[in-house]
Amino acid sequence: MRIIFLNHDLNNNTGAGRFGLLLLNYLKQEIPDLEYRVLTHDNFLPDKKNKLLFSLLKIRAIFKKYDIIHALDGWPYGIIAALASLGLKRKLIITAVGTGAIQPLYNFWKKPIMVWAYRRADQVVAVSNNTKQEILKIIPNLDIQVINHGVEFEKFQSADWRTKPKIIDGLRPYILSVGSLKKRKGYEYSISAFAEISKKFPNLKYVIVGRGPEREALKLQITNYKLQNKIIFLDNLNEDELIALYQNAELFILLPQDIKKDIEGFGLVFLEAAAAGLPVIGTKASSAEDALLDGRNGILAPQKDFNQASDAMVKILSNTELKKSFSQESLKFAKAMNWERVAQQYSSLYHNL
Fold first, then answer.
1. 153-336, CATH topology level
2. 60 φ/ψ sector (left φ>0, alpha ψ -120 to 50, else beta)
3. Which residues contact 125 (CB under 8 A, 6 or more apart)?
4. Which among 201, 151, 204, 209 has a CA at the least distance from the CA of 177?
5. Can you tell me the distance from the alpha carbon of 145 to that of 94, in angstroms, rounded to the nearest whole number?
6. Residues 53-82 pLDDT 10s
7. What is the mean pLDDT of residues 29-41?
8. Which CATH fold topology does 2-150+338-352 show?
9. Which interval of the chain is the signal sequence (predicted)?
10. Which of 110, 120, 211, 284 could form a disulfide with 235 if both were Cys (CB 3.0 to 4.6 A apart)?
11. Which residues contact 188 (CB under 8 A, 6 or more apart)?
């Protein structure tokens, strides 16, 4: 089986890169005869519009050597794949992830070609039901299959993570968020929710792992709440340190928001937290609905409602039995949401095209 993939990068430090790397690693195990190539943004997308035709012709020549073309998001990779494969009689799959799959559908200039590319694909796959529903609002009759992301469950099970890295020294007890500092992550609401409960839990800290454009605005918000000594930003962590932070946290919280269709595609960090046995808190009408089980291993709060998010934290932190039950359910859920499952679903899709 010969498949060519289009993705932004294969960098383990980016969401798109991690998705591509993990998918390929497990597909190679699932499909022994897999021959593949990955075209990434830096190598094959032109930096100037007047070079676009040349790039498409170059990509088209490469496509001829493969049976299946798989774009790992809608914009621009689904567009490029659809254009460069015209007339080649190759099977085309577009995986719709997040913002790049949705935002172009609300842009006057981009919408027509995005709709055309989705309709031209032999199969559109969405990484969450939320992503699927957002596309169906614009293209109601489109056939979309949902294949959620997975998690490397075993990686989070070693007891060594709890004590080995020094990153956790002086932090406990703490709640945890992991993700780039962007508006759509909802940090302004999780910080407000933490401010609501900090008097009830005076020793509790809030650790946020990530970097991004909202850092200064969030630091100002923290200063206004006088929580500079309780909310800690961390970044540049290695894998051992990140897993140690998951393993030692009291709970995980991330409150994804829909910001002008800039959305989270799938909440992989919720699965990572679950794999570490953490209760999780997310938001309704977001990708978190696929990445946690409301009322079983965590709680979904309405978007932009920090009061309900703070109530959810109090409910978990104040009830030892509930926290233990959520933790056990998190482990069960994460174990089932593995990358082997993802690879099997994609393998079945490839073979049935």
1. Rossmann fold (3.40.50)
2. alpha
3. 93, 94, 95, 96, 144, 145, 146, 147, 346, 349
4. 209
5. 11
6. 678 889 999 999 999 999 999 999 999 999
7. 95
8. Rossmann fold (3.40.50)
9. none
10. 211
11. 214, 217, 218, 221
